[in-house]
Amino acid sequence: MFVQTTTSKRQGGKTYTSYLVRESFRTPDGPRSRTVCNITDLPPDTRELIAASLKGQAFVPAQCVQLHQALDYGGLSVLNHTWQRFEMDRLLAAMGSARQRNLLKAMIYARLLFPCAKLSLKLQAQGTWLAEACQLAPNEAFDEDDLYEAMDQMNGHWVKLEKELYGQTFANGLQLTLYDLTSTYFEGHGPRGLAQFGHSRDHRSDRPQILLAVATDDLARQSRRQQNVARPAADLASALWDYGGDLCF
After folding, report:
1. How do residues 179-209 score in pLDDT, each as one tens digit?
2. How far is the CA of 44 from the CAs of 14, 18, 36, 47, 59, in angstroms?
3. How far is CA 220 from CA 145, 217, 227, 247, in A?
4. How far apart are the C-alpha atoms of 234 and 182, rounded to whole Å?
5. Strand order in the sheet with 2-9
6. Are 212 and 181 in contact (CB under 8 A)?
7. Residue 47 and residue 44: Cα distance in Å, rounded?
8. Among 102, 92, 110, which residue's Cα sits nearest to residue 140?
9. What is the pLDDT of residue 13?
10. Count of beta carbons in the 10 Å neighbourhood of residue 20
11. Which of 62, 71, 130, 218 is the most exposed place for a label (fewest CB within 10 A)?
């Protein structure tokens, strides 16, 4: 059976459209068809539903549709987009098999979204899009031994990977400053003009003291200074600011 649409014009130029459910059958004289019912007066949505049903489509009432399970998708979608945008797959291209690279990717995603031990990754990944986002089978077990074996594939590549990421992140280089602080107190008066009373790291606020600071840049150029400790909260910040010219800050 099928729905046949027929259009006819009447006197006065008015046009009528009819929707008929028709049935095909065979006779000795050849195939014929007959009208089963007229559905013209039914609502358009109902007519479309009948037509689709006669074509073999199945339907379920909207009120019977229920959500049984949904995958946690949002954060993984953002990470996946970022991973593709920065072409991160090429960083792992030389490491292990395709599945091992995907497991490494999954561990990176998990570390950002739900940090956990390798043994807990399987549990944390349940109900999420993690496996599919990393091109793994939907039923991926995230076996602990497989995860550690995948991590082993980074041996011999880690330093190169860090250098490449460093080069991309700091294209113009990075000014590195190393510093250390110490303080000392004096039983006597201490150096004139330098030793003062103040907060003591050695719990000897009853003695005059000075703060010693040493800083060096990435070219190993050092600046050694003596600093008053009457206001230790600002000692390091002020020292590095005052002596920045020496270290090319």
Report:
1. 788 888 888 877 777 888 888 878 888 888 8
2. 20, 12, 18, 5, 17
3. 44, 5, 21, 9
4. 14
5. 2-9, 15-27, 30-38
6. yes
7. 5
8. 102
9. 77
10. 17
11. 62
| Beta strands, E only, the chain | 2-9, 15-27, 30-38, 177-185, 209-217, 222-227
CB 77 within 8 A of CB 129: yes
Dist CA 132 CA 83 (whole Å): 14
Position 20, amino acid:
L
pTM for the full predicted model: 0.47
pLDDT tens per residue across span 99-118: 999 999 999 999 999 898 99
Q: Which of 146, 139, 138 is nearest to 100 (CA)?
A: 146
Neighbours of 154 (CB within 10 A): 14
In the DSSP assignment, the letter for residue 100 is H
Name residue 158's amino acid: W
Rounded Cα distance, 108 and 133, in Å:
12
